[in-house]
Amino acid sequence: MFDASILTGPITNYPVADSFNRALERDDSTGDIPHVFVSSVVWDLPAGTGRARRLPGVLGAIANDWTVTALVTRQSGVPVAATQATNFNAFAGFGVQRPNLVGDPALPAGQRTSSQWFNTAAFAVAPQFTLGSASRNPVRGPAYRDVDLALMRRLPLRRGVSLEVRGEVINLLNTTNLGTPNTVLGGANFGTITTAFDPRVTQLALKVVF
Fold it and tell me: In the chain, at which end, N or C, are there fewer CB atoms within 10 A of the end residue's CB?
């Protein structure tokens, strides 16, 4: 039973817990994202179109030959493995030791915060010569939401050559997208999230197209 040399996992540091008990590996796959929604919109405003003419004054002039694009992304969080800070089975060749699962690690959506993303009381330290009962990926990280917007115009310079002017806003709504939770039992930040994706980023670009 106590063998880490058979059926190693896809990540070296996260081997199969028990080669003779594959039920412990029956879990959401690493990288599993059950819900993904991606939608994009492209709006061209060619010179002289009715849409551009209907805009008042200066706005109508600016609108000519512009392209507006938007990208909306919403997706579920990814599964995360849980380990414990002290690996009592390192002598036997185990890269990590999983903790024991003594409860439901999931918290209701309204109770999840960056200071406690999952139920930390659901985990207990597995002692030496035992294999933790936690499954492969017992915790799921936060969802991801993002809206990107780009405004582009191409200005002809001479035959076959044009200048592309582009303005982009990444994470237009400045949504806070948290990173993965800390899942090392015994660590100071166990159950918390201390990282996040970039806030709103604005960039301007010029490109010569020929």
Answer: N
Q: Kindly report, residue by residue over 108-127, the tens digit of the pLDDT.
A: 999 999 999 999 999 999 99
Q: Is the pTM here over 0.85, yes or no?
A: no
DSSP of 127-175, one letter per residue?
-TT------S--EE---EEEEEEEEEEEEEEETTEEEEEEEEEESTT--
**What does pLDDT average to over the chain?**
84
Cβ atoms of residues 15 and 95 within 8 Å: yes
Under the phi-then-psi rule, with left for phi > 0, alpha for psi from -120 to 50, and beta for the rest, what region is 173? alpha
Q: Could you report the per-residue pLDDT of 124-181, keeping only the tens digit for each?
A: 999 999 888 998 899 999 999 999 999 999 888 888 888 989 999 999 999 999 999 9
Bridge-based pairing of strands 201-209 and 83-84 is unpaired
Q: Are strands 161-170 and 201-209 parallel, antiparallel or unpaired?
A: antiparallel
- Tell me how long the chain is: 210
Burial 18-48 (b: 16+ CB within 10 A, else e): bbeeeebbeebeeeeeeeeeeeeeeeebeee
